[in-house]
Amino acid sequence: MAEESIKIYTRTGDAGSTGLLGSKRVNKESLRIAAVGDVDELNCQLGIIHSLSSDGQVMDLLTEVQNLLFELGAELAKPDSSRLLPSHATRLEQFIDQLQEALPPLRNFLLPGGCPTAAQCHLARAVCRRAERSLFQLSRSEHVNAVSLQFINRLSDLLFVLARSINQREGTADVLWKSEL
Length: 181
Description:
It is built from five helices and four strands, in the order ββαααβααβ. By secondary structure, it is mainly α. The mean pLDDT is 92.
């Protein structure tokens, strides 16, 4: 007999609530669900960058970060849980330092752009900043792992440096901001 697959639809959310891990239900417009959604959208953005890249180092980095973002989503879906560890935020700092070593010093503000993959990194950085705001807003009223707040902040920094690194690897100049004032 064939193994029965899990149904994607449950019909339990039709009335405006959704289930958290552990069977608790919350309104779909809750701050916690908004944060989960922002983290999920960020993970999707990283999946796009991964699909655009042919650089094995970039792809490996993104795969590791996507797995950690999935852990963050699971952590947010189970109130009072902590899945991310200080070593995860430190790992992002190591990635940043490693990528920055090969980059020229930044002397100007940059506009989002460059090659398509780097431009997508800039978009992911903006989504990451929104996810960070959602997490901080949630933390004002409910428990959020402090390491997760640190992690999401470091991730936006990583995405900025990664965009610069991808532009460099592709031989594309960063787009410098030129004030018209």
